[in-house]
């Protein structure tokens, strides 16, 4: 019994010694790898902030400019003309190419690629998250693009761009691909060249925007939505899942189908965004007079719009005026016209 107890005690002591030694070595390695990159380097061509941590396997060009508190993980790469703001974090295997600027507190998840070596630049604002294997700011897929042309992407602040999303630069030097602030762009979405995206939009998985699409604010798309080139999506609109949108969607409206048709107002979205009862009631009345009119004497869309514009009880509501203007804008200039709608006129 005593012999067994002594053996067990010796074995426990040996385990504690090994654990202590392992922890000591691990702590020493952490201190070594951290202190290795705490030296401050500053000259005309590069700035490594004193608090940055760069993994030994990362490739950081000496001309790259890094802010304070930057963390660069294993097997990352940073180009010579890249600029990273304070507090940026690059997870393993993420890359920043070409003339690219990241604002403060941006995060690149594993496999994310930002920027391209083609002429032009990619500018990302602050507090953006680029998801796993997303590709942001690479050259466009427009056959008219010429390799010598400068192309641009500008992204605002506080955007959540999820995994496998692709966002392309503009197709020419006179244009920009622009993303606003506070957008949630879910997995596998695509935003093509020269698109103009506002703020606070939600694009569900597999939303695909072709070139030159314009999206205002607070637009919500459901999954697997496709938007044709040069289409315009008005603020607070909703696009149902699987929709193929080939014409413009005015403000506040809901569309669904292939090809997408107007299916009324985005009432749930309007209520969530703080529209009051009077505004929603007035919008419903105006929508009914324009798109569900039973008066066969007012057969054209233009006549029905004119009637609402002359309606004293409706025209003083700013939301109604905004909707009317949005409908008229769908037919202005080179715009694609409004999505199809069903007119219930008794015929």
UniProtKB/TrEMBL annotation:
Pfam families documented for this protein: Acetyltransf_11, Hexapep
Residue stretches making up the UDP N-acetylglucosamine O-acyltransferase C-terminal domain: 248-339
Gene3D superfamilies found in the cross-reference section: Hexapeptide repeat proteins (2.160.10.10), Udp N-acetylglucosamine O-acyltransferase, C-terminal domain (1.20.1180.10)
GO biological process terms, semicolon-separated: lipid A biosynthetic process; lipid X metabolic process
SUPFAM superfamilies reported in the protein's UniProt record: Trimeric LpxA-like enzymes
CDD domains per record: LbH_UDP-GlcNAc_AT (cd03351)
GO annotations of cellular component type: membrane; mitochondrion
InterPro entries in the cross-refs: Acetyltransf_C, Acetyltransf_C_sf, Hexapep, Lipid_A_LpxA, Trimer_LpxA-like_sf
GO molecular function: acyl-[acyl-carrier-protein]-UDP-N-acetylglucosamine O-acyltransferase activity
Key words, A-Z: Acyltransferase, Lipid A biosynthesis, Lipid biosynthesis, Lipid metabolism, Transferase
Name of the protein described by the UniProt record: UDP N-acetylglucosamine O-acyltransferase C-terminal domain-containing protein
Species the sequence originates in: Pisum sativum
Origin organism lineage: Eukaryota, Viridiplantae, Streptophyta, Embryophyta, Tracheophyta
């Amino acid at each position: 019994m005593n012999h067994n107890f002594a053996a067990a005690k010796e074995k426990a002591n040996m385990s504690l010694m090994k654990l202590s030694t392992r922890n000591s070595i691990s702590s020493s390695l952490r201190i070594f790898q951290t202190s290795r990159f705490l030296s401050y380097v500053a000259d005309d061509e590069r700035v490594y902030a004193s608090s940055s941590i760069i993994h030994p396997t990362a490739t950081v060009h000496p001309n790259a400019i890094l802010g304070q508190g930057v963390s660069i993980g294993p097997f990352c790469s940073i180009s010579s003309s890249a600029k990273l703001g304070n507090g940026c974090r690059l997870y393993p295997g993420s890359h920043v190419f070409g003339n690219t600027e990241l604002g403060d507190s941006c995060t690149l998840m594993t496999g994310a690629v930002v920027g391209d070596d083609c002429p032009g630049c990619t500018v990302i604002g602050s507090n953006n998250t680029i998801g796993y294997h997303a590709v942001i700011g690479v050259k466009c897929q427009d056959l008219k693009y010429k390799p010598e042309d400068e192309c641009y992407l500008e992204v605002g602040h506080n955007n959540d761009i999820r995994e496998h999303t692709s966002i392309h630069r503009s197709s020419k030097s006179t244009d920009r691909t622009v993303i606003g602030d506070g957008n949630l762009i879910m997995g596998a979405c695509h935003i093509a060249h020269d698109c103009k995206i506002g703020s606070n939009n939600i694009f569900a998985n597999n939303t695909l925007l072709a070139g030159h699409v314009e999206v205002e604010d607070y637009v919500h798309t459901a999954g697997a939505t496709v938007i044709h080139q040069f289409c315009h999506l008005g603020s607070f609109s909703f696009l149902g899942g699987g929709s193929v949108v080939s014409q413009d969607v005015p403000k506040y409206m809901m569309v669904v189908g292939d090809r997408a048709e107007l299916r009324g107002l985005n009432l749930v979205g309007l209520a969530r965004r703080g529209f009051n009862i009077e505004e929603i009631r007035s919008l419903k009345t105006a929508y009914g007079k324009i798109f569900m009119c039973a008066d066969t004497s007012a057969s054209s869309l233009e006549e029905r719009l004119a009637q609402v514009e002359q309606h004293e009880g409706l025209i003083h509501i700013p939301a109604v005026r905004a909707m009317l203007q949005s409908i008229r804008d769908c037919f202005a200039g080179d715009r694609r016209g409004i999505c199809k709608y069903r007119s219930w006129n008794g015929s």
